[in-house]
């Protein structure tokens, strides 16, 4: 499913946080977006996923114009995001967090809940099996019955990825998945992302950790001051002088 | 003494319905409903009007009260659930005050400030027998409500409303519409409050607008905050404490007759306020522990 | 015509009361981040304070100052003993505690002063007539006093260093923290100011009508409505919306009757929330 952005702008008052971005994310690709703080990456993410009121331009997913869709409507189409600061359901266990994410549960409907308990039970069993697979895949077995609020930062990121997977997404948008995660877990997360990508799931990743990201993605977009500065293969893009100036500043 | 105890239990059971509704709304879903008394009032007046002027059977009035209270919750929910949680609190508070204004103003239907007297009892007759029957009836409603409550809590629906309480944006990100759940929860709580109001009208036998002041909402808040938010045991214990407090303040006046009725009303309001403040600061988990201590 | 102009004038005076109380709410909402339900009862404190001060000295000015100081003290005490301790908690905790404070204040006033309505004993002044319209000199005095209070508040917000810091915190609390603005000094000034402003609203309401322990609570909803209609965090919006609601309420009275007046502000608030949730002057809530 192709995600296409055409002339996306977002204004806060007089300030243009995102300024005329056009991008196409091909189905099943692994794409990174980098840029200095305040470049508008997160704002772009939030608008594309519907968490900010629509600014200007068109967001389309596959054939559909989703510019005015609700956040949950866009997620249901298969484009699911995570958050910079993980948003676990703190008082539910890891297992419950994952179960909650499964789509189309008739047990979430009060009428079915009271009048078709058999159907609800069967679905729950199926979801539970799926959750166990996800737990194994992400190696969360040890903390499966722990309240999500007690997990470490890295575990929360894993859990968020797991929740996203439960929705059976086609395109996953990760907002700084490596921020605050230790190097070992970064490798693990990268491995999961690669594995999932091989199954055909597309990824768009906002990240600061250049080294981990550039090894992971096949296409890198660079944002600066709300605009798209460069796009291309990671090595190529990172070699460009204007990118080094904008992004790496004096450090380069 | 026996009669007194039964009477207390009946009133407690009536209040438990309110506490259960608010526990569902606030404790599990995180909805700050400051207008609970509005739904209670609708249930009470529906029962009162239908059973007196309407000369309908009591059951019809009770059901109508539940339905009307539930219906009233829908527009409130549609408007307010799109908003921030603290706006929701203000809107629901405004709703309950508006209900009271309507009750006060539409005298042709509600007899205005005079109120409606002579509402038939749930079970006719005097003495312990009928009182026990009433208690059994209200108690039965309580048991049904608790069973339904537990069924909901342990279901995918219950999981989702707790997820909404913990992080609404994450729920949206997973492709689920929180408003759909919240409005159902709001309606469920309102239906419980409506039933509670119906029982109340038939038990007290008289309704008037000043029985439905916002303080009633905060009695229920005090109960669930004292008991422990988001737990059924918290709702039950909290309601018992509330009754102890309300009855205790009545005894206090018998003991200290120089305190006038209005002064006692003031003291009672002050005590509710103090309890809300102190529990919020020093024991936010309540006496029975809140949802954070369940696992 | 004269009838309508009279309604308009009384609407403007009522609107000043609503606007002042909404100003207090919007300041607290913008900086301490919760709707302060104790605003109404702080108004009542102001009214009783002014009543006592006026009785003792027979001077409305001294009475007003007494009331405003009483309100400021209550605002500060509420901050120091309650809201300060809840600063790290959710807005629900703050909101519930503010309801608690409201009840405690009302209880103290009820026990201390009784529940009978009291009035300011002011000399009767014949209204002036401008054309057919009677204009009460007292209304003009009150309007002047309100304008002065508003001028003082806006001067504090825009011309003093602490006011600039307050606005900075309101704009972006995280940024303000990073840039080293001491929250406690900002908060102290905020609560003193919010208390005094609510009290002023209560004093004006008390002079115009009657003083009773319930008066402030009854004025709370229109105040919330005005704060929301004006746009949370916008002082100008609060005042404009207060005036608007005051005028709409009064002008509509011949059509909807006296009791539904309060419901009108509720309705207006609902409409604004539906059509333009950020209010007339509010900012769009930022990202992240």
Briefly, what is this?
Chain B has 295 residues and is mostly helical.
Largest sheet of chain B: none
What is the element string of chain C, with H for helices and E for strands?
A: HHHHEEHHHHHHH
Task: Give the CA-CA distance, first to last residue of chain C.
Answer: 53 Å
Number of domains of chain C: 1
Continuous helix count of chain B: 12
Shape of chain B: globular
Unreliable sequence segments of chain B: none
Low-confidence parts of chain C, pLDDT < 50 over ≥5 residues? Answer: none
β-sheet strand percentage of chain C? under 5%
Proportion of strand residues of chain B: under 5%
The tally of strands of chain B reads 0
Side by side, the strands of the main sheet of chain C go 1-2
Give the CATH class of chain C. Mainly Alpha
For this structure, the CATH topology of chain C is ABC transporter involved in vitamin B12 uptake, BtuC
Instruction: Report the total helices of chain C.
Output: 11
Cα-atom radius of gyration of chain B: 19 Å
Mean pLDDT of chain B: 92
What pair of chains forms the biggest interface? B-C, 45 and 43 residues
The largest pleated sheet of chain C is described as: 2 strands, antiparallel
Model description:
The complex is a heterotrimer of chains A (252), B (295) and C (288). With 252 residues, chain A is an alpha/beta fold. Chain A has 2 domains: 3-88 and 153-251, Rossmann fold (3-Layer(aba) Sandwich), CATH 3.40.50; 91-150, no CATH class. Chain A is 40% helix and 23% strand. In chain A, strand 7, helix 7 and strand 8 (202-206) form a beta-alpha-beta unit. With 295 residues, chain B is mainly α. Chain B has one domain (2-211). With 288 residues, chain C is mainly α. Chain C has a single domain (2-275), classed as ABC transporter involved in vitamin B12 uptake, BtuC (Orthogonal Bundle), CATH 1.10.3470. Chain C contains 11 helices and 2 strands. In chain C, helix 5 (137-159) packs across helix 6. The longest helix of chain C is centred in the N-terminal third of the chain and has 31 residues, at 2-32. The chains are: A alpha/beta (252), B mainly alpha (295), C mainly alpha (288). Chains in contact: A-B, A-C, B-C.
